[in-house]
Every structure is written in C-alpha cells, then in structure tokens.
Amino acid sequence: MRHPLRALVLGVALALTPGCASLQLGETRIENPISAARTLDQRAYALLNAYAAVIEEATDIVRDPAATLAFKRALGQAERVATPAAETLQIAVTSYVSARADFEAASGASQPALERAATALTIAAQRLSQAIEAARAPISELEDLVRARRA
Amino acid sequence: MLNLIVQLQMLLAALSVFLPLVPEENRVRAAEIIDAVAKALAASGAIGANLDDLAAKLAAIRAEVEAMAAAGRAVSAEELENAMTRVRSASAAFRAALETAEAGAR
Q1: Considering only CA atoms, which of A38, A80, A55, A98 is closest in space to residue B85?
Q2: Which chain B residues are within 8 Å of A52, Cβ to Cβ?
Q3: Cβ neighbours of residue A99 under 8 Å, at least 6 residues apart?
Q4: Backbone CA torsion sign across B29, B31, B34, B38
Q5: Cβ–Cβ < 8 Å for A36, B70
Q6: Which positions 63-82 of B are in contact with A (Cβ < 8 Å)?
Q7: Is A7 in CB contact (< 8 Å) with chain B?
Q8: Which helix (H) or strand (E) is A31 found in, with range?
Q9: Cα–Cα dist A115/A63, whole Å
C-alpha cells in the first residue's frame, strides 16, 4: 500500500522539475527549486540537488517490501539513464564555472586574451544549457513511468 | 496533515476499546471496519510522511537557490562538487537497495 503512495510523491517531484514554482498537495507545498534559479549555474545546482532528493525517495520505494519487483526494476532502468545525464551536467557546469573564472581573471588582460576567454565562456554556457536540457529528458521518462503506474 | 491523521488514529484506538460492548453478532463486522479504517489511516500517514519528507528537501533546496539568486551569488565549485557527491551517494544507495531487492526475489 505504501509503494504507490511513494510513487505518487516521486511523480509529483518529477513533474515539478520543469514546471511551476510550487504545487499545493493537501497541506503540503511541494517546491520546485529549479524555477528559483536566475543563472545557468544556479539552475544546474538546483537540478542536481533536486535529482538527488528524488533518487533518495526512489530508494525508499525500492526498499519497500510492498513494492513489486517489476516496478523496482523499471525505476532502476530509469535511474541508470538519468544518473549519467546528471554526471554530464556536472561536468558541463564545472567547465562553465571554470570558464567564467578565467573570463573574470582576463578582464585586465590584453584584448586577444579577453576575446579567447569570452569565446570559451560562450561555448561552456552553450554546452551547459544543452546538458541541462538533456538531463530533463530522462527525468521526464521516469515521470511518465510513475504516471503510468498511478493510472 | 500528519497531526490530523495521528488524532484520528488515536480516536480509532479509543473506539476499539468499546468493541466488547458491541452486540456479539456485530462485533466481528465492527472490528473489520475499524481495522479497515486503521489501515486507510496508516496509508494516509505514509503519504503524508513521504510527501513531507520530499517536500522538506525540495523546499530547503529552493530556499538555498532563492538566497543565491537574491544575492546574485554564483555557485562555487565546492558547492557543485557537494551536489554531485549527493547524487552519487543517492545513486549508490539506490542501486544497492535494488540489488538487495533482486537478491530477495530469487
């Protein structure tokens, strides 16, 4: 009995990732941390932490003896796709932070050095943006799985 | 929500004390009803607990990100590493739990 309820909670969290700032469920308000971000690095940081919280919840489902093995395996399959996407996101955001630091350090440097740093930062920002979008896809897949379970 | 559920569970426990006063022919049926309601309340409690747990985590993350955004502060490399460590740790725990579940099913 506990399993589908936890799945509901997981589904709600996943549904919130790209969406609204918060959702009211009974007396509990589910917040969407990603929508609070103003910059790319903040967005990536919020997404990584929110994903960690969702996986922690998924772990509770998997530990629930009432949950079916088939559903646990389906969660496992979704996690195996989503976690590498989160790892890619972490690499992209780390590169972006590094490129931004280089750009700030180059502010007093020569024009060619500044242009190189600006180009590197632009590329890093584009890659980070792509990584954020790519990480959302496997999360949506997991969301669909949970919704199907609820139906 | 959890408080309300706990209060209802306590009320149910109090009502069950009066079961012996119910006529014998209806006692089993009354006990079944109380049992069914107790199970429903326990399930509701599970919803609330899980919801509250995840909601609290997401709210804490949102509050942190809101503070960052309000201050116009960039995320540090250390904060990113900590976030990824949390993901890796959660993923490892998840996979270990899944392995245990698979082993238990064999």
Answers
A1: A55
A2: 83, 86-87, 89-90
A3: A117, A120, A121, A123, A124, A125
A4: negative
A5: no
A6: 64-66, 68-69, 72, 74-77, 79-81
A7: no
A8: strand A28-31
A9: 53
Q: Nearest-CA distance from B6 to chain A in Å?
A: 15
Distance CA B54, CA A25 (A): 12
User: Which DSSP category does A133 fall into?
Assistant: H
> B69 and A100 in contact by Cβ < 8 A?
no
**List of chain A residues whose C-beta atoms are within 8 Å of the C-beta of residue B87:** 48, 51-52, 55, 83, 86-87, 90
State the amino acid at position A90 in one-letter form: Q
Q: What is this structure's pTM?
A: 0.70
Q: Domain extents for chain A? A: 2-150
Confidence of residue A150 (pLDDT cuts 50, 70, 90): very low
Which residues of chain B have a CB within 8 Å of the CB of A51? 87
CA distance B25 to B28: 7
Segment A98-144, tens digit of pLDDT: 999 999 998 888 888 899 999 999 999 999 999 999 998 786 666 56
